[in-house]
Specification:
By secondary structure, this protein is an alpha+beta fold. It folds into two domains: 65 residues, Roll (SH3 type barrels), CATH 2.30.30.440; 73 residues, Rv1738 (Double Stranded RNA Binding Domain, 2-Layer Sandwich). The protein is 19% helix and 42% strand. It has a five-stranded antiparallel β-sheet, with no helix packed on it. Strands 10-11-12 form a three-stranded antiparallel β-sheet. The relative contact order is 0.12.
Length: 172
């Protein structure tokens, strides 16, 4: 993976230079909590020295689009082609945490290349308890990841059903 991020300061303005190669993954964070992040593969690099714009094939629908990435985008590098002699894949997971007055919400997202799945978890601090935000983060994230895991098992069962031609149920 070749990823270069450099910052140059001109007075009060910071300029971030993004560099990528064909085959790198790009993740664009959602600007709204109720929208998923976007994940895609860079199929063409149009800028000099690996800079933008990039032609991106989006994971959720396979469509391609020319992208001029903003500050909400990050390059994650190539998915590993070989891992210990085996073919490898890279999935991307993220957990976004928000907290307000003792109420924490976690939004977990998993992008597999063919599916984008979401899970949500919440935690509410008891007013009698000490304010330790990390505990709310951990509990909300755990609940979001459990929900995400349940959805991944359901998606797997649906995929198997489609291949087999009959309903299947997977043990949890």
């Amino acid at each position: 993976m070749v990823l270069t991020a450099s910052r140059t300061t001109f007075g009060e303005v910071k300029v971030m230079t993004m560099k990528a190669m064909v085959g790198d993954r790009i993740i664009v964070q959602s600007r709204h909590l109720d929208e998923p992040q976007r994940d895609g593969e860079i199929v063409e690099v149009h800028g000099p020295d690996g800079g933008p714009p990039y032609l991106v094939r989006w994971s959720e629908d396979g469509r391609t689009a020319l992208l001029f990435p903003g500050p909400d985008a990050q390059i994650s590098g190539h998915a590993p082609e070989k891992v210990a002699g085996r073919h490898g894949k890279m999935w991307h997971a993220s957990v976004l945490l928000t907290e307000e007055e003792g109420h924490t919400v976690a939004e977990a997202t998993l992008s597999t290349g063919s599916h984008v799945l979401h899970g949500r978890g919440e935690a509410q601090r008891n007013p009698a308890d000490r304010d330790v935000p990390e505990i709310g983060d951990e509990l909300a994230a755990a609940r979001a990841l459990v929900e995400l895991s349940r959805r991944l098992v359901e998606t797997t069962a649906a995929d198997i059903s489609a291949v087999e031609g009959h309903p299947v149920q997977l043990a949890r």
